[in-house]
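TICKET: design request
STATUS: open
ATTACHED STRUCTURE:
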């Protein structure tokens, strides 16, 4: 498929996927919105950074464009990429459902049979449109519509792949569902769409890992995630993104929690040239709650503009936001948050804590909190701190026989420990390894 976006490209994507007419119309309507939408004003300045006609909007990783249920049948060159990330081993150890997306198609999908017998649906979005179209049509675009922002419109027009999860009423999963996304072609746009629906009194944990190699030409990642937690349901969404430092990572993630439902976001951002990501939770039912825990690492030439948005719309709702950032070699990290407590949300509680660690004199950290409180009975707190690693602390660690670089790494790993302990073991190990690699040469 040629570079650039047009109505013909949008129609061709839908045609190649064999989609029903309603999805073709969904894409075309979104494309028309995209044409007239301006770049977002919220977040980092994007002017002059994106040429939408320079990207490919659909790339197939295999000639057959097939999905394999057996990892050994996936083409070797694709398996080699994921082997280097340790993904197959993690999947085997967890014995959980796993889907891996390379470029724009899912190439591997596996779901435990006993889960199917409980009515759980876990597949890629392309399959969901064909086999579970009524459910997809009911929910897609209801939380993140094409009119939300320019990148949501772009995703709605050209989306490809991503995960679809439906957990029936009362079903609770003990093991996490897992997915992995990777960009492996220069000048590709990747636009996965993820839709998670947890019915009443159900629970599910979803873990997503992302990675991309370095190319001299930039890539664009503009995903959309919609999460629905019905009455009494619990959803945990974990993302570890390690894009290369030439990727523009512009993501819209939004969720809604009904009465006594819980939504947890565990969000890690290690790479990319620019990340703009603000997971949003709408606490729509009384007693609904959310915990948002995020970490961002910005190195040379990187901007991590991340944060969270929470809307308290019902009584006795609660939210807790914890944001940690690391900046090194002139990198810039920002927390940009919005908390709104609507009138009538009596007894609502919100706590926001932002901790930043600067590893040199060239780096920068900023906090941009917005609090919109319309309910007098609400309880809201915000705490922010920016610090550096003291020479005394490094000296103390080194006095125990630890080298200077390793001493710095020990302090950093301690700083991010509250985040790491929330991850499944394989992800915690990988994140620690990524941080250690990023810290090489941190001293001297």
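STATUS: resolved
RESOLUTION: sequence designed for all positions
ATTACHED SEQUENCE:
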């Amino acid at each position: 498929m040629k570079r650039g976006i047009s109505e013909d490209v949008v129609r061709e994507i839908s045609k190649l996927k064999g989609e029903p007419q309603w999805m073709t119309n969904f894409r075309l309507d979104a494309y028309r919105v995209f044409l007239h939408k301006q770049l977002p004003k919220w977040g980092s300045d994007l002017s002059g950074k994106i040429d939408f006609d320079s990207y490919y909007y659909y790339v197939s990783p295999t000639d057959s464009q097939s999905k394999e249920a057996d990892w050994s049948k996936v083409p070797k060159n694709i398996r080699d990429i994921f082997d280097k990330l340790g993904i197959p081993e993690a999947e085997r150890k967890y014995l959980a459902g796993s889907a891996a997306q390379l470029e724009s198609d899912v190439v591997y999908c596996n779901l435990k049979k006993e889960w199917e017998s409980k009515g759980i649906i876990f597949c890629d979005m392309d399959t969901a449109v064909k086999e579970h179209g009524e459910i997809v049509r009911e929910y897609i675009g209801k939380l993140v519509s094409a009119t939300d922002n320019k990148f949501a419109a772009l995703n709605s027009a050209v989306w490809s792949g991503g995960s679809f999860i439906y957990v029936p009423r009362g079903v609770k999963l003990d093991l996490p569902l897992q997915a992995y996304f990777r960009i492996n072609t220069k000048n590709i746009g990747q636009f996965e769409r993820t839709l998670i629906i947890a019915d009443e009194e159900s629970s599910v944990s979803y873990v997503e890992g992302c990675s991309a190699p370095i190319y001299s030409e930039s890539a664009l990642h503009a995903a959309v995630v919609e999460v629905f937690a019905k009455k009494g349901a619990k959803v945990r969404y974990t993302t570890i993104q390690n894009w290369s430092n030439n990727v523009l990572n512009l993501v819209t993630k939004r969720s809604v929690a009904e009465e006594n439902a819980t939504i947890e976001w565990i969000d890690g951002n290690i790479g990319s040239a620019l990340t703009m990501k603000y997971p949003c939770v709408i606490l729509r039912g009384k007693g609904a709650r959310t915990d948002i825990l995020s970490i961002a690492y910005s190195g040379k030439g990187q901007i991590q503009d991340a944060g969270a948005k929470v809307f308290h719309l019902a009584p006795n709702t609660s939210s807790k936001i914890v944001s940690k950032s690391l900046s090194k070699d002139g990198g810039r990290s920002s927390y940009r948050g919005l908390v709104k407590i609507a009138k009538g949300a009596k007894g609502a509680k919100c706590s926001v804590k932002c901790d930043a660690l600067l590893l040199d004199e060239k780096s920068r950290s900023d906090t941009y909190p917005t609090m919109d409180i319309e309910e007098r009975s609400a309880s809201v707190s915000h705490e922010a701190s920016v610090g550096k690693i003291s020479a005394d602390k490094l000296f103390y660690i080194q006095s125990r026989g630890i080298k200077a670089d390793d001493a710095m790494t020990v302090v950093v790993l301690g700083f991010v420990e509250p985040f790491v302990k929330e991850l499944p073991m394989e992800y915690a190990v990988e994140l620690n390894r990524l941080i250690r690699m990023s810290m090489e040469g941190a001293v001297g």
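CLOSING REMARK: The first strand starts at residue 98 and ends at 102. Residues 390-444 form one domain.
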